[in-house]
TrEMBL record:
Claim: Cell cycle is one of the keywords in the record: no
GO molecular function: phosphoenolpyruvate-glycerone phosphotransferase activity
UniProt-listed Gene3D superfamilies: Phosphotransferase system, mannose-type IIA component
Subunit: Homodimer. The dihydroxyacetone kinase complex is composed of a homodimer of DhaM, a homodimer of DhaK and the subunit DhaL.
SUPFAM superfamilies: PTS system fructose IIA component-like
EC numbers for this chain: 2.7.1.121
Protein name in UniProt: phosphoenolpyruvate--glycerone phosphotransferase
Catalytic activity of the protein: dihydroxyacetone + phosphoenolpyruvate = dihydroxyacetone phosphate + pyruvate
Transmembrane segments: none
Species lineage: Bacteria, Bacillati, Bacillota, Bacilli, Lactobacillales
InterPro entries: DhaM, DhaM_N, PTS_EIIA_man-typ, PTS_EIIA_man-typ_sf
One example of a Gene Ontology biological process annotation: phosphoenolpyruvate-dependent sugar phosphotransferase system
Limits of the PTS EIIA type-4 domain: 2-122
A Pfam family it matches: EIIA-man
Amino acid sequence: MSRGVVLVSHTKEIPEGLKRLIGEVAKDVPITTAGGLEDGGIGTSMERISQAIEENTADELLAFYDLGSAKMNLEMAIEMTDKKVTLFDTAMVESAYTACALLAADVGEEDIEQQLATLKVK
């Protein structure tokens, strides 16, 4: 079973930049992004998030987001997919980077969750 990552943000640039950064340490981890609105505005779109989930080639996904309303749209998109998606309420940049490095090293899900617990948003 393959594992990948979905990055969700209120702007197009944040997840794209993060994906580029992660590519330096985990180039083989499938990463898809959903940032901003269809018209290029600030916000999140459940449809764009659903598309990012479905376009990711992995069967199991770890999902990271930047702000609260992104979480709400991400939760709705997760309900509409057959893929296993684990949503993390953690600092987006640090968590996604750490998770991808661990996925690249083939670390198990429980160990990844334990590592990311220290980055939990309080």
